[in-house]
Fold:
Amino acid sequence: MKRLILGMLLAGGAATAAMAAHNPTPPEGYRNFGQCQSALVQEQNEVRKDPDEYTEQQADDINGGSCERQDDGSYRIIF
Structure:
């Protein structure tokens, strides 16, 4: 049972790391909320294209993404 739980935690961590690696936010961020939201929706659609690889964990990760305003006034996608 411990191995099963450990395996599930590791798989979830790998999915979260994969989502962070594919974060489409450019280094300078987005100028406005609309640009950020558009990029987030595009990323969500890309993940959902392949139903064989679209897991429940990925659904939680990608649906948990949001656009947040930074101190410098730019917007970034946060997972």
In short: The radius of gyration is 14 Å. The CA atoms of residues 2 and 8 lie 10 Å apart.
